[in-house]
Amino acid sequence: MGLRLPARAQVVIVGGGIVGASTAYHLARRGWTDVVVLEKNTVTSGTTWHAAGLVTQARGTYGTRAIVRRSLEIFKSLEEDTGFSTGFVETGTLNIATSAARIDELRHQASVVRSNGIEAELLDVEQTIRVHPLLNPDGLHGSLHFPRDGRGTATDTTMSLVRGATRRGVQVLEGISAVDVLTSHDRVVGVRTAQGDIEVEYVVNATGLWGREFGAKAGVEVPLQALAHYYVVTDLIPDLPRNLPTVKSGDEYAYVKDEAGGLMVGFFEPGSYAWGSQGIPADKGFVQLPEDWDHLGPYYEKLIHRMPVLKDAGIRLHFCGPESFTPDGQYHLGEAPNLRNYFVAAGFNSVGFLSGPGAGSVLADRIVDGRSPVDLPETDLGRVQRHETNRRFLEQRALESLDLAYEIHWPFQQRTSARPLRISPLHGKTAAAGAVFGELCGWERANWYAPSDAERRYEYTFERQNWFEHSAAEHRAVRERVGVIDTSSFGKLLVQGRDAVRVLQRLSVNDVDTRTGRITYTQWLNEHGGIEADVTVTRLDEDRFLVLSGPATVNRDLAHLRRHLTDQDFCTVADVSGTMAMLAVMGPDSRRLLRQVTDADLSSEAFPFGASAEIDLGLGFVRATRVTYVGELGWELLIPAEIAHHVWDVLFEAGQSCGIKPAGYHAMNSLRLEKGYRSWGHDISAGDNPLEAGLGFAVKWDKPGGFIGREALAQAKTAGVSRRLVQFTLTESDALLFHDEPIFRDGHLVGRVASAQFGHTLGAAVALGWVSAPEAVARTWFEEGDYEIETGNRRVRARASLRPLYDPKSERPKS
Questions:
Q1: Which of 90, 331, 378, 515 has its CA 20 to 30 A from that of 395?
Q2: 155: closest CA among 23, 49, 260, 74?
Q3: Is 202 in contact with 367 (CB distance < 8 Å)?
């Protein structure tokens, strides 16, 4: 490891843990050797040095599981390249269940991991004890066995990666702190250290615990919080078998593995605490926090019942060290939305060792190729909300991430901490109507409405939950009469100026240069043809446009817009989301309802589908746009916040004769899935192009000036489509789908479910799922064959369609 600070480098990686080392190694493998790793202490001194070394594939999303599978390949092959061992041993993992609810979770987990091709087998109690004889069978319900999981040594793996990188020319400099990042025109240009400046093209923030503070130096928001995290290691235990499977017991908040003749017992228990929330000490390395046996003891005692061999074992080490956790439990991996060539790989929620080799590999490919080989919208920095870097918010929400880590991961589970924060102007009205709120991006949103005789709370299960019939009634109201959805949390971007139309035309695949008072549905692509945004654009007048986006994507879309403004563009962009309420008035009786409260002509001739205009409503004025996300006749109303209550009252007073009903987001999701409408971040993202996503109808190939990504998309069109987003319904009305379930065609794994909900009109679970063919095939291939979707560890027959299964000709919205 050299000591000479270069004047320039192509890439500077700040942080010498396993993630930074992996990124350097894989950049070097790709031929990028002008790379410098800066470590202010010594390599591994952040959190890598005290990692427990587990390698478990049961992660929460398809993309993060793909990262671990990349890691597994690296653990197994790295020694051959570098000569340094990773210490990896394939031992397997047993996720055990001590309750019926936990077994339900394991059944669903068994199915979803198979969508990644991960080997997993449900075992009964006898089989579980046979695999791990130290377990007490009392209270066991069974387990889920991952035979290809294993464990390794964090320090050895990191040093092996460092050796592989330095042998190829990478410089790893210890004892040098990066004190600032230099920028110009929203792009990285350098890194400042105490020893001097380095001119750079790319910076990688792999600073672990220090990720939030280091990101802030460049104006990059990286929400993460260090929390106390415990494990103990016992004395030697006579005759202890070696390389037993790791045991993970969610109900006991613990994992156990054999360690140098003893047992390591680690905990993901409730009741941890935030450390260094007002700033991590900059000069600290190899940090240890105080022991707290009063806190940990009861959890350890509980585990003794599950593994009696612990009862007489002495304690060799009681370790507490800080780990970084994020508000949503997903790590940050990708480019900062507002700063070009600044990449973040931090906040790994105590899975940095098992994810690090794969994450570094993916990040290196992203830097070299300009796109990620694994689609990971869940780790994208564009998802970050401003309030998530607030210290008090982080202290509460990151703690909840740790508290829930080993709890049952229920479908539709809601976070409860740091609430309420952002509320719609109509929050009081929806609450009075019986709303049961969920939270998204800090917004309190009505997920479903409870009748006066029902409790306003979730009762979680893997079957139909307590809100199922209430949401079904809301769904039917929209399909049969009229429903009103408070969509105020949706993002609203005002784009205006002389060159606004030119900017939006350059971004949009559709033609947004329409006459005033028209709305256009479009995608924005990257240079590779991938979908960066899925939005509507309303032309308010000659040089003013309103872009509507989802609450989870508006920050990302705003950054994308600003990134593509040039010095020659006379155009401004402003987020005006908080200035307006928004109501979706949807259903076959929506016209009849609105005619009672406005003088505007709402006939199809005067107000056709796609039209937008300011109309009077009650005693005020709103912008009404005839569009739909639920597949019915309806209008979206943009309402000045100060008259939102009045508009709500007017609508519901007039709507009594129409059977009006407030509807929540669960109903909106079931309605949109019956129509096959896409959702960015769930069904489509930057790794998918419009042809694969079934959105080719929105692409105007020959519009003047073209659009970003046109050349790549044209090449994809010429090559043909080998994967498609397909709509499915199950043939069994009692079976449910959630997401990531594997899809089989003629008995072969061909894809996974992207998003799903029960379709109350279709009478069965409905889903959008990605299906891959062996090569480019005709459209008919995707609808042919015998399809099955595996859910809860059993396969259910499914019907596939590329046209919407509900109202395939889209006649109802245009009626």
A1: 378
A2: 49
A3: yes
* For residue 281, cis peptide bond before it (omega within 30 degrees of 0): no
Contact 691, 721 (CB under 8 A): yes
Task: Count the neighbouring beta carbons within 10 Å of the beta carbon of residue 784.
Answer: 12
3-state secondary structure (DSSP) of residue 739: coil
Q: What angle do CA 140, 144, 147 make, to 5 degrees?
A: 130
Please, what are the averages of pLDDT over each run of 10 residues along the chain (815 residues)? 82 98 98 98 96 97 98 97 97 98 98 98 98 97 98 98 98 96 97 97 97 97 97 96 96 96 96 93 87 94 96 95 97 98 98 98 98 97 97 97 97 98 98 98 98 96 98 98 98 98 98 98 98 98 97 97 95 96 98 98 98 98 98 98 98 97 98 98 98 98 96 98 98 98 98 98 98 97 97 98 97 97
Q: What angle do CA 228, 230, 232 make, to 5 degrees?
A: 160
Q: Which amino acid is residue 814, in one-letter code?
A: K
Spatial distance between the Cα atoms of 58 and 148, rounded to a whole number of angstroms = 11
From 512, 572, 564, select the one nearest 538 (Cα to Cα). 512
Taking the C-alpha atoms of residue 180 and residue 216, their distance in angstroms, rounded to an integer, is 9
Mapping DSSP to helix (H, G, I), strand (E, B) and coil, where does residue 746 land? coil
CB neighbours of residue 642 within 10 Å: 11
C-alpha–C-alpha distance, residues 607 and 185, integer Å: 44
Q: For residues 690-720, b (16+ Cβ closer than 10 Å) or e, as one string?
A: bbbbbbeebbbeebeeebbbbebbeebbeee
| Region of residue 623 (left: phi > 0; alpha: psi -120 to 50; beta: else) | beta
CB-based contact 163:37 (threshold 8 Å): no
The terminus-to-terminus CA distance of the chain in angstroms comes to 71
| Distance (Å) of CA 28 to CA 105, 358, 367, 444 | 41, 15, 12, 46
Per-residue CA distances from 512 to 96, 532, 537, 540, 555 (Å):
55, 17, 7, 11, 21
Q: For residues 203 and 182, give the distance between their C-alpha atoms in angstroms, rounded to a whole number.
A: 10
> What distance in Å separates the CA atoms of residue 85 and residue 160, rounded to the nearest whole number?
7
Distance CA 600, CA 617 (A): 9
Domains, the chain, with CATH or none: 8-83+153-224+328-383 (3.50.50.60), 89-151+226-324 (3.30.9.10), 720-815 (2.40.30.110)
